[in-house]
Write a structure and sequence with these properties.
With 264 residues, the chain is of the alpha+beta class. The protein has four helices and 16 strands. The chain has two domains: 10-135, 2,3-Dihydroxybiphenyl 1,2-Dioxygenase, domain 1, CATH 3.10.180.10; 150-261, Roll (2,3-Dihydroxybiphenyl 1,2-Dioxygenase, domain 1), CATH 3.10.180. It starts with 21 loop residues before the first strand and ends with a strand.
């Protein structure tokens, strides 16, 4: 969890991400326009230009001129609204084979999205969904760790031991370690940097899932504005020493997301 503060990517980096590190986040919702209205209003994003018809209304909002995420329609019938975390890989087809060999499932792809990226969506052995992206013309998000941009992602799982083995096995160069904080929390590590977290669900009947957190300069204020715009507060705001103040919300269409305010 301490890794939430260790990376300081600034606006306009141009993207491009080492294997095994978070490289993209996107939101799938039934109503793309409503989703853009909510998040652009909350974080000050520009919705970005409309894409070609082949992408089905998918948009890439910007923050300070830099791409921050994707927002598009739900791609699979019956799938709930959700944020998806994508990890960078050099060869998504090889990574997909590793996912299957380790007991995961291929949910979508691997497929080319125009000439921009080759990607797939997968489930780990406990059922948590995640993406893998092989960057081409689109180099992932261009801004992180500033208010309104990606800050952290963590997995809540019913099988922590399996997750600790699975993700390093499928993501080249990634290892895992236990956080030295006050409760059991594990970190995925790439090139010496903490890149994501994992912890055990308190109730094994709860569905495993990755939660994407966006940075906020004031979590209490941002959470209050989100609630005024129709979101539900699920957890927090809570301050964790050495990590910062965080909260978990559900947006008006039902997608869960986090807020994180690093410590001063």
């Amino acid at each position: 969890m301490t890794g939430a503060n260790e990376s300081t990517t600034a606006v306009g980096t141009g993207g491009g991400h080492p294997q095994g590190t978070p490289s993209w986040i996107d939101l799938q919702v039934p109503n793309v326009a409503a989703g853009l209205d909510f998040y652009c209003g909350l974080f000050g994003w520009d919705p970005g230009p409309e894409g070609p018809p082949e992408v089905g209304g998918y948009r890439m909002p910007r923050l300070g001129g830099a791409t921050v995420c994707g927002v598009g329609p739900v791609m699979q019938a019956g799938a709930p609204p959700a944020w998806t975390l994508h990890f960078a890989v050099d060869d998504v087809d090889e990574a997909a084979a590793r996912v299957a060999a380790r007991g995961g499932a291929v949910l979508l792809g691997p497929m080319d999205v125009l000439d921009a990226v080759r990607m797939g969506v997968f489930a780990d052995p406990a059922g948590a969904h995640f993406g893998l992206s092989q960057e081409r013309q689109v180099r992932g998000f261009e801004v992180t760790h500033v208010p309104g941009a990606f800050a952290w992602a963590e997995l809540a799982t019913s099988d922590l031991a399996e997750a600790r083995a699975f993700y390093p096995a499928i993501l080249p160069g990634v290892t895992e370690k236990r956080w030295d904080g006050e409760f059991e929390y594990h970190l995925l590590v790439s090139a010496g940097k903490d890149v994501a977290g994992m912890f055990a669900l308190p109730d094994a009947s709860m569905p495993p899932a990755w939660t994407v957190s966006l940075q906020s300069a004031d979590v209490e204020q941002t959470a209050a504005r989100a609630r005024e715009a129709g979101a539900d507060l699920l957890m927090g705001p809570t301050m964790t020493p050495g990590v910062g103040t965080w909260a978990v919300l559900r947006d008006p269409q039902g997608a869960t997301f986090g807020l994180l305010q690093p410590p001063d």
